[in-house]
Amino acid sequence: MARKFLLLCLTLCSLVQAARAADMLVLGVVPYLSARKLAELYEPMRAQLQRSLGAPVVLETAPDYQSYLARTREGRYDIIATSPYFGRLAQLEQGYVPLARPLTNLEPLLVTRMDGPHELEALRGKVVSTSDKLANLTLAAHRYLWQNGLEPGRDVTIRPAGSHANSVQALLNGESAAAIISVTTMRQLHPGTTARVRVMKRLPHITPLLYLVHRRLGATRIDGLRGQLLQFANHTEVGRLFSKELGHDGLKEITPADMKVLDPYVQDLKVILR
């Protein structure tokens, strides 16, 4: 009898754990910073999503952009905080619905050491470090360099370093002549690091990080989540601080025009993926 009771308890525990796993939602953040830093920055949003959705929400990232893109394609993430080109691809081909975007645009930078070059031509034949070959900043820099007479892969080598921090460290170690970074990420790096670099070129502003949700959550739930997310980011003390830390300055709804403008970069992304 005791054995049967024990087996029943174990079965019930397994069923409870399975139910919890089924109810758990995943916020997937593109790995533009270390996992520890992302967890720190996105904890306020994770907690808000958990309150809004009435279900446990866990935060995940991935080892690199390629893995993150694959996991998004598989539908592993219920909500994504992703690069704009990944976001447009997720909308077009992977079942995700736009939620919100930052009020501010993203400003890519080419940075160099304090004694580094001032002109782009000085990068000819040199290495430029970046976080990942699929990062939105990398794709934006590809276009900028090409438009200014330096073809990546021929005139200049773009070398992924795994993260923005690693990219800047490669620059400081003399492994590259410049690094691709953003104004926002520059603020998030250690002051002792940023004090040793200077801005070489400011690239044209681009669409920032996008927030999307998988359509499996349902239209009613998604509409409610969108409103609650905007309320959180724009009208609560915790949300405003969260937005400031990420350089968002608040959130707003994503328009069709916001997404359509990303199409040329999605084509660039597909070429790289092939």
Brief sketch in words of this structure:
The chain is an alpha/beta fold and 274 residues long.
Commentary on this structure:
By secondary structure, the chain is α/β, with parallel strands linked by helices. It folds into two domains: 17-105 and 207-273, Periplasmic binding protein-like II (D-Maltodextrin-Binding Protein, domain 2, 3-Layer(aba) Sandwich); 108-202, D-Maltodextrin-Binding Protein, domain 2 (3-Layer(aba) Sandwich), CATH 3.40.190. The protein is built from twelve helices and eleven strands. It has helices at 2-23, 35-53, 65-73, 84-93, 136-147, 164-172, 183-188, 191-194, 219-235, 237-246, 256-260, 263-273; strands at 25-29, 57-60, 79-82, 96-102, 108-113, 127-130, 157-160, 178-182, 197-202, 210-214, 251-252. The strands form two sheets. Strands 2-1-3-10-4-11 form a six-stranded mixed beta sheet, sandwiched between helices. A five-stranded mixed beta sheet has the order 7-6-8-5-9. Helix 2 (35-53) packs across helix 9 (219-235) and helix 9 crosses helix 10 (237-246). It starts with a helix and ends with a helix. Mean pLDDT is 88; it is low at 1-21.
The largest pleated sheet is described as:
6 strands, mixed
Share of residues in strands: 15-25%
Shape: globular
Give the tally of structural domains.
Answer: 2
Gyration radius, in Å: 21 Å
By secondary-structure content and strand pairing, the structural class works out as: alpha/beta
CATH architecture of the largest domain: 3-Layer(aba) Sandwich
Mean pLDDT: 88
Distance between the termini: 61 Å
CATH C-level of the largest domain: Alpha Beta
CATH topology of the largest domain: D-Maltodextrin-Binding Protein, domain 2
Strand order of the largest sheet: 2-1-3-10-4-11
CATH H-tier superfamily of the largest domain: Periplasmic binding protein-like II
Roughly how much helix do the residues carry, as a percent range?
A: 40-55%
What's the tally of helices? 12
Low-confidence region ranges:
1-21
Number-wise, the strands total 11
Order of helices and strands: HEHEHEHEEEHEHEHHEEHHEHH
